[in-house]
Structures are given as structure tokens and as C-alpha cells.
Amino acid sequence: MTNSKSMFILHRTVVLCTLLALCMPSIFGGFLSAQAQKAKKDPALDLYFSANALYNRGLYELAVDEFTSFVAKYPTHAKAPYANLGLGLCLFSTGKLKEAEPVFAKIATNAKITAIAPIFNLRGHCLLSLGKFPEAEQSFASTISKDKNPANLADAYAGYTEALYNQSKWPEVVKASDEALKRAPTAASAPRVGLQGALARYELEKYPEAKAILVKLKATKEAADEFKQHVSFLMGECLRQEEDYKNAALSYDEARKIEGSFTMEAHYRLGYVSFLMKEYPKAITELTSFIAAHKDSEHLPRANLYLGRSYLETKNAQAVTFLTKLVPDAKLGAEAALWLGRLHLRAKDYTKAEAALKPVIARFASSELISDLNYDYATSLMQGEKFAEATPIFAKVDKKGPQAANSIWMESYCLHQTKKFDLSLARCEIFLATYKDDENLNEVVFLRAENLFLLERYADAVVSYETVLKAKGVAVERLDVVRFRVGQIRYQEQKWPEALTMLEPLLPKNLATPTFAQLKYVAGDCYFKQENWAKAISMFTAFTSAQAKDPNAALALFKLGKSYESSNMAAQALTTLQKMLTTFPKSEHVPHASVELGRLLYEGKKYAEAKKVLLTAASTEFAPHSTYYLGYVALAEEDQALAIKNFETLVTKHATHELAPDATLQYGKLLVLAGDFAKSKATLDAFIKKLPTHPKADQAQFYLGISLAREDSYAEALPRFEAILAKGKESPLRERALYEAAWCDKGLKKPDAAQKRYQSLITEFPTGELVLDAGFELAELEFEAEDFKGSVTRLTALLPKVTAKPELKERVLYRIGWNHFNLEADQPAAKAFEDMLTLNPKSEKVVMASYQAGEANLRLKGYPKALLHFTRVVAAGKTDDGLHEQALLRKAETEGFSNLWPASQKSYTEFLTTYATSDFVHRAQFGVGWAQENQKMYAPAIASYEKVLAAGNRDETSARSQFQIGECHLASKAYDDAIKAFVKVEVNYAYPKWSSRALFDMGKALEGKGLPQQAKARYEELVKNYPDSTVVPAAKALIAKL
Length: 1042
Known about the structure:
The protein has 59 helices and no strands. α56 (about 975-990) packs antiparallel against α57 and α58 runs antiparallel to α59 (about 1030-1040). With about 1050 residues, the protein is mostly helical.
């Protein structure tokens, strides 16, 4: 906050002083003497005394004219100086001070005039009003130096004070105001002069003296009336500068409640000192109120800043909003960014802190806050573990500022974290030499020791570590680190007892941070060197359990094994050494155990570890074992190609090895799964011939059958499966053999045999892995046999069981839909097809399912759904099965059923364009006409119907087209054309439905022509010839009416 006097501008009101009011009659006599009145007329004196008379009556403006005229006409007259005086006084009295000033200046050198009037004071007041303060100062000074009149001197000192005040000559203002008050303590100008004296003392930082004057002014009625707000506000300013914020707030609040020029300032200051008092809720209230009430105030940006900081201190999220919007501000941006960064730092959101501070560093490089900005920015980087980026920023922090010590410490810390231990050490030395009494001294001593330790300067490091150990107030956690480091140094020096003296107190603490990662290893090795086997075992066991991947873990395992061995614990030693081989397969301490360990890991389903161990033996004498188990590992990891490669390698390179037979079988099975049936048949057939009694011969038979079946050699494959089935229900391959045998039966066109196999599978293996597939395929056979009811019953029961198998569920839903459709159960058919489409919108059956769903919904008159499905089929494009053609026609028809006539017309037209030679062309052409007719487009509709008739067919579509031509004419009231068209329906086509309706509408046309009896005859003809027609009741009603 700045202390600018500009806010204390006191607006002057020029008032003729009492002194002048009293002296005016003595300056100008009222009238001419009797002698003069009798004398010869003197135009000059007449004019002069006329002006004087006007002046004495207070008619100043008229007097101005007279005095001006006199001075102009008689510039050398003896009364000219007095006329100028009168002119100046009149101008002064009428507030024309600008015009009065040169007049007073003109006569200021006339001793006679200055002897009778305070010319310098008058001119001084004019100069004040004109803002010519240095000249005013000189003018009042002339009175002070030359005039002896007490009243004039008092007025001069008041004006002199005003002139000095407006030039900010504060020491001179103090003296002048004191003299003015001394000479005229009760003058009208006294409150103003007193206030100026108080303000000068405020500017000179003499706050107690300023307050003393303000207290007196507050007790003065005149001051209380005119300057009450000024006094309260300035009192608040003095108290604020003295950091008496509580009383300052009371003064600001008092000033704010008075309407005046300081209302806004006082309001702002009240919010500001509330902030300074850390009364943040009150600050928020006042500043928020200020911002709302004074949107054009120059203090608005800073008010927003302190409001944002108040929100920050109250942990209100609005702080971010207020501070962020101030960052672009040229004056406050640096401060706003600083506090925005600190907000995020306090919240430990270092990423946001960095983002807030980084963009402003360059922008405010010359700001007085740049050092703070750099420090906080570097802190955000450091806390975000961006040590390399933070280091040079800490280096930029002002080394004479409040963050100097911390910035050097933090810079050294960041250098340490980036492993620049020598540079970090150098910064530590600077800190320790410069800030010997700093509160963080011990931390820097410790950091120095860490640098020395990591630079392997152990002797120097110990000195610093021991300094920390002796220091007071060091945290226990820090002392633990120091003891461990000293223990490590003694260990490096092979001073085992001294090392353990430092290390043993740390062991019970279970220190788990990375710093202590080697604690139990170092302690264990000290015990090991001293042949204390029990403690060595304890330490190495704990270390390898906690630090399994540590660089020293392999050596720890080795020494643990040796410790067990030395303690006559051979089994544990073996286990430990095997563990070492598993973790560190290249260890020189454990020979040739890879294959067995690999097998154990495989059996434990630790495939990655097994593979890693087994590969270490791939080029050793254990290669067959390694290759064999690697094949199984690959198989377990579903890497089929690698499994084939491994088993093939064993079979070809180690054909006589004990593991070769099983490898051959696995190789053959994998070839089947890979679809290489030719090679698998040869491999498995050779296995069966060579080893017919092998325990896994059934597997060879089974997979040989699979190979044959997949090549459609069902007749050769079936005996392989039946050979397995002949061995009874104990065979683990029975379920799969039944399933594959059923497939062979289907392939051999033996559906009844296939059904029996599926039934057997379902009965024998109700929870088997193939029971759901068997159930579905059995239902498929029933469908193919047109047993739709049996098929749908089976599939409906199967549906809840296939939820976890979406592909099978899709097929089940599809077939359920077809079964229901064939049974004309349209509702469940539509649902099944739609459920299938929902399950898999990208199914290969999506087009057919959509079409069937559309057909089912169409039969249900569910036109919106039907239209949706037909549209989907049409969108899929042309297909070889003709579905697109049918769907496009159905789409047009459904749009018609839905009264979507423009769309229907468009679809029919598209059909005619796309399928011009279709069997359904006439049906589509009729559809165009029907859509046009329903849009009341009668002429185009008639043209479309005539295209149907042009084909020369006598089918119902043609009969209907002829009838609709009549309908169009009837709707157009072209009765004769309608009658002609209706006659052709009955004459040319043998369709009673349309003939009867043609007779009915022919009667209506005749009625339209005004021929009721002829119309009646047509109705009677209709009733007679077509008694079963749906229009007979209407015809009878019309007959009765006519």
C-alpha cells in the first residue's frame, strides 16, 4: 500500500475574508460631497462614484462595468488605482478570480493601495484558485513579511499553508499551519488548516502528532461538520501505519458511513486492514461488498487480490478464481501469480503450482517479487521431483533476500538428488560458512555428510555425521540415517564390531525406507565375518525376503546358504541355493539345477520363471529336458507355435530320449490344433504303430480321428472315436469322442445316429464342457427335420445356460427366431431375432436376422419396428440371397402402412430403379401410384397405375390399379372418367372384391353427377351380384336413402 497525499485533496471554497468585508466602506466613500455635487459636472468622477455606489450596494457585476469603463477612459486619472482596486474587489466578489488576479497584480506595487487593502492576500487567493501554488506562496509570503495587521497576517498564514500544502512541502506546511492556528485558532479556516497540518505530519511519518491534531479536530464542531470524514479517514491511515489495525478499522468504518469523497477509500481500507488483522471472513465480507459497490474504482484489482488471498487463508476454492484473473494484470500480475502458486504449494499440488508460476517468470523478470517467484517456482519443481529444472531457478533467488539461506540449501538438495554430489557439497560449504546460526544448519551439515559419503570421502563424512549426532534437536529419523551411514563407513573399513555398534540399535526399528535397504545385509555380513551364523541367517533371511531383487540379493542368498551349511542345516541350504539359482540363473555358486527347478516351477504354474530357468540349460547336457519342459511352458502360455517348435526339436534331435514318445504325442496334437492335418496324421499314425500300448495311445487315436474328420474323411475318422467309446465310460476322452463321432455321423448323412450320440453326451455329461454345444446341435438337427416345436423347446431351455458363451447364445437366439417364425409365433420370433441383434450387432447373420425380425413385426402390424429392420437390411446393400430386393419392397410397403407416403413413394421408386427386371416390378409400380394417390397427387397416381396396366396382366394388382384409377377420378370429381374406369374393373377383371367396390363407387359418381336413380340401380346391382361384399351394408343404406 502506498501513502499518497493525492487522496487528501481538500477542495477550496473562496470566501471574502472578514477582514476585506470590514475594510470595504473605508476604501470607497458612499457619495459625492455637497460641494462636489454643486461643482461643474466631472464625467470621470461621475463615473467613478457611480461605480462606487454600485459596489457599496453589492451590485458587483454592474460595478464591474463602471469600473472597467473608468479605467479604460481615464487610465491616468488620480482615481485610476482606486478604480482598479474596486474592479479587482468586484471581480473577486463575483468569483471571477482569474480576471481579478492580473488586476491585483497591477496595483500590488502601489503603496497607497497596499496600505488600505490586503492586496497580496487577495492576489494569493486568486492564484490558489488558479492552481498557481508557487506564485500564491510568494504572494502570501509578501503579506507575512510586510504587513503588520493581525487579521491580514492570520489570513496570509492560512493561504500560505494552503499554497505549501498543494506543493507537498510538508515540513513547511507543519510550521505554517501551526502559525496560522496560533494566530487565528477560531477562524473559519482553522479546521482546514489543522487538517492540513495533520496530513503533513502523516506524510512525514509523525503519526502520533498527526493523531493529536485529528483528535482536537474531531472535537471541534466546525471541523466535525465540514471535515468529519477527512478526519476519520486520516486517523485510520495513521493507525494503519502504526499497525494498530483494530482501531484503524474503527476509523475507516466511521469514515465509510459518512457520505463523501473518502467513502470508497474508507470502504476499501476497511477490507484491507481486516485482511492485515487476519480477520479473513470479515475481509471477505468487506472486500466483496466494496467490489460490488465500486466497480470503477482504481482499487478494484488490489481488492480482488486481497479477496483472493483471504479466500486462500480460509481454504475457499474461490481463491483460485480471483487470483487467476489477476495474473494478466500488469501491476498486480506478479503478486497474484505468487499467491496462486503458494495456494497450490500449500495444497501440495505441485503440478498446478508449477503451471501457475512458470509462465510469469520471464514476464515479471524486473518485478521486485521476482526473487519470491523464482523461489516458489523452484520449490514447485523440487517438490515435483524435477530437481534438474529446479536447481538453476534456486540459483537465481536473491542471495540478500529473506530466502537466501533456504535457496542455497534447496539448490544443494536438488544437486544432490541429481547425483551432482560435488556441486551439492560446494553449495553446502557456502551455506555453512554464511549462515552459521540458521535454523536449518543441522540439515545442511547432514546433506554435506551425505555428499561426502557418496563421493566416498568417508573420513570427512564421518566428521559431519558425528556433528549431527552431537547436535541438539535433531529428529530421531535423521539420527537413524546418520547412525546407519556411520555403520556403513565402518563396514567399508572392515571394522565389524564398530559397525555393529552403530547398526544394531537400528535393527528392531523395522526401518523400511529405501535409505535403509542395505541395513540387514550389512549387519548380516558383519555377523558372517565374525562367524555368528545364527544372527547371519536371521539377517540374510530378512534381507532376501524384503529385498528379493536387490543387487546384493544373490550374494546374500549365497551367504545365507553358506550360513545354513555352517550350521549343519543341509536341507535349508539346498532350498536356499535353489532359490538363488531361480532368481539369479547365472550365479556361479549353483551348478546345473535349472531343469529340475524349471519343472517344479512349471508344475506350480510359474511359467515365466520356469522358462527363464530352463533356457539357461538349453545348451547344456540337459538340453532334452530343457526343450521338453519349454514345450509345456509354451503350451501353458498358449504360445502354440513355440510349443510345436520345442516338441519338434526334441523328436527330431533326440529321437531315442526317454521323453521323445510323449513329445511326439504332444507334437501331433499341436499340429492338429494348428490345422496341419497332413503332418499330424503322419505323426500320430506313426506313434500308434510304434507304441500301440503306450499309456497315451488313446490320445493319439483321438487326435488322429480329429485330423481325419477335419479333412471330411468321416468314414475313416469315425472308427478312431468308436475305438475310444468302446473302452467304456471311464475314458477321459469319452465326452469329446461322443461329440466328434456325432459330427462324423452328420457328415455321413446319418442324422438319427448323430442325435443318439448327442443324447448320450447330454445324459452322461450333464455338466460337461460340450453339453451346451451338443444341445444346440441336437436342436439344429430337429430344425432340419422340421420339428420346429421340439427344436424351439430345446433351445428355449438351453438359452439361460449359454449366457457366458455369447457366440453360442447368438446362434441359439437366431435358431429360436426361425423356429417361432416357422410356427407363425411372430411375437417370440421378433423378440428372438431382436435379442440376437442386440447381442451382436456385427453378426454375420445380421442381415437375415434383421429381415426376419422385420417380417415378424410386419405380420404383427408393428410397423415402426418392422421399418427399422427393413431399413437396416436395405442399408447393408445388395446380397446374393435377394434379401435386399425383398427388404426394399417391404420397406416401401411398411412406410405405406405407416402413412409415410413420400418415403414410401421414394422407396418404391428406388426399387424400380434398382430392380427393373424383378418379378415384383408391377407390385412396386402400383405402390408408387398408391403413395401418390394418398398424397392427393391424382394425375401422377393415374399415370403410375396405367404403367401397371400397360403390362397387360389380368392379375389382382392390375384389377386394383384399374380400380384406383377410378378412385383418383372420383376424388377429382371427374365423374365421367371415374365411371369409365370403374366399368373396366368389372368388365376386364374377375375379382369380385374390386368389381363390387367398383359398382359401389360408380354409384357415388352417378350421385355426383346428379343422377340418383341411376346410382340406386348400381347399388341394387351390387347387392344382387355380390351379396358377400364388404360394401353391401353401405349400398343398402344408400338404396334406402334414395
